[in-house]
Amino acid sequence: MDRILLEHGSGGKKMHKLIREFFAPEFEMKSFGDSAVIDIINAERRTLNAERFRLAFTTDSYVVSPLFFPGGNIGELAVYGTVNDLAMVGARPLYLSAGFIFEEGFLINDMKKILVSMAEAAKKSGVKIIAGDTKVVNKGKADGMFINTSGIGVVEGGLDISPKNIKVGDKIIISGTIGNHGVAVMAERNGLSFNPPVLSDTAPLNHIIQEMLGYGEVHAMRDPTRGGLATTLKEMALESRLCFEISEEAIPVAKGVIGVSELLGLDPLYIANEGIFVAFVKNDAAEKMLDALKKNPLGRGSNIIGEVVESPSGKVLLKTRIGGTRLIDMLSGEQLPRIC
Amino acid sequence: MDRILLEHGSGGKKMHKLIREFFAPEFEMKSFGDSAVIDIINAERRTLNAERFRLAFTTDSYVVSPLFFPGGNIGELAVYGTVNDLAMVGARPLYLSAGFIFEEGFLINDMKKILVSMAEAAKKSGVKIIAGDTKVVNKGKADGMFINTSGIGVVEGGLDISPKNIKVGDKIIISGTIGNHGVAVMAERNGLSFNPPVLSDTAPLNHIIQEMLGYGEVHAMRDPTRGGLATTLKEMALESRLCFEISEEAIPVAKGVIGVSELLGLDPLYIANEGIFVAFVKNDAAEKMLDALKKNPLGRGSNIIGEVVESPSGKVLLKTRIGGTRLIDMLSGEQLPRIC
Question: Which residues between 33 and 52 in chain B have a beta carbon less than 8 angstroms from any beta carbon of chain A?
């Protein structure tokens, strides 16, 4: 047996065998049928202050093409992406579910590689994949495989991180260089190679964010994935009803990304990222946080890229290198489809 | 705009517009990007006893073909399926996430119908859909649409419902007639029509189960979806290491299902169901529970179909109508692919 068959999605013998052989050894799944039941108050030998925690809940489907790309694959993307969505509200990610849709004929070996990556990614992130599901559709009715991960985390101690909390005077920090993930996927898709290669930045951000939170007040965070930094900032400007002034010069872009973007007419501000975040932090904490971020390998490229002003409300203004001001809007159209 | 475009999955303007126009009005989504944050301890004006609840977590992807079938569509299936997976461990379902994968070109009108169904199904089930995600893949790379729903519920008061708790002497109750969902989907797929039509039994089981739990001890439950009643019973026999003796005569099958099954050589025991469950209950509570179930429209067809004996361990024995005994195994191969 080297390929996924329709019968692997039937609920019967073949499906049970597939789960037993390939999924069960990698994950701590308590549920492939009904539900996993978890005692989150007392889990992991840590007692949550039951009156003071809220639950964070998020979902994402992953349809990246190709499934394997420089620096990662769909499996780790699916784990880190959901871990990061939890981390963005200040949650400690705890549990993930994973739902798989396979196209009939998918190579078992590729599946195995992806599952192993997911297990490693879960370990690195400190989360457990406890609920799962597998479905199979006929040849030609999907594209290899799609993964959905949903995640649960806990927000402790009354922490409230949200664009509505952004304040005038907040500094805007980016945690690393932009554009890497999108360029890595695009390169693989088009058979381009760069020297040095541009790798996806897919990574778990929960640990570095927990560190950062120790240094002062963080008002809002978001990871600029689909739509890139520009779209994310514009979303947050609209939600906060404030104005963000950012400096082109301060935005870190990797050399390889600049080159490719110029060559292909892409704007790095709109290219998808995976392992970076943008944080709106209280003015007086920004420098301390930046120092702390820079000491973490995931934050080496971090920088303060701008600050929040009162008006014009909902706008993002980019000061260009040559001294002009550019109004930044959301991505219009589609630059690179199926990037995550 | 009457069809889904690749740009609807870009993260940019078109995606925001789609979400604002079609998803936001139907659901109570707090998150389409990062995470929804919920205060489950104090939610819904009910205070959970914080020391005595556990969390139930489950996921399922839905790839049913066709998307619309007699008695339902993929949207309500995706809500009820996940609600029921929570209900099967005795949880009160609270929150759902919904991840959508669209094939480019999908009709906006069909999407709208499906979203409206999901909203109605959520309302009927008493759950809130609070987190979501939309992705779009190129024409020919998916089959219309796929939906993943994940769900969170609370198991209160130390309730522990699991096949490991099944005991010798337990009565086995089925809550309704078997085979309806599978036959309804198959009929639609093959352009067959029956008179009266066979409708999918897709329905939320959480309320009827909460009622039943008031009448006595329930040791285990499961909804016999993919693989049918036979596969579900075999799974549970293996997990409990006990033997189930069931009676063919006692298993309710709708007339239309019997006819089609004979015609097409299908075995109703292996046909997928959606809105029924099988429960293992303490002997002395079984009759009271059955009376209660029969009063609920979802339990009208309920019956006691057998009981649990010590050995042979892991076996399901069916007493046939003509007095023989048939050993029941899991579904082997694939009877009806893409049933849910």
Answer: 33-41, 50-51
User: Could B40 and A54 be called an inter-chain contact, meaning their C-beta atoms sit closer than 8 Å?
Assistant: yes
Confidence check: pLDDT of A33 > 90:
no
* Nearest Cβ partner for A131 among B57, B235, B335: B57
Backbone phi, psi, residue B133, to 5°: -160, 140
Helices (H), chain B: 13-18, 74-87, 108-125, 180-189, 206-213, 228-240, 255-264, 286-295
At CA B32, angle to CA A162 and CA A55, rounded to 5?
60
Choose among A278, A275, A269, A274: nearest CA to A335. Answer: A269
CA distance A81 to A226: 11
Query: pLDDT class for A50, splitting at 50, 70, 90?
Result: low
Q: Which domain holds residue B246?
A: 163-328
In order along chain B (340 residues), what is the average pLDDT of each group of 10 residues? 92 92 89 83 67 89 97 98 97 96 98 98 97 96 98 92 97 98 93 89 97 96 96 97 98 92 91 97 97 97 98 98 96 87
Paired sense of beta strands B316-319 and B243-247, if any: parallel
Closest in B57, B99, B335 to A38, CB measured: B57
B40 to A60: CB separation less than 8 angstroms, yes or no: no
Give domain status of residue A15, yes or no: no
A175 and A307 belong to one structural domain: yes
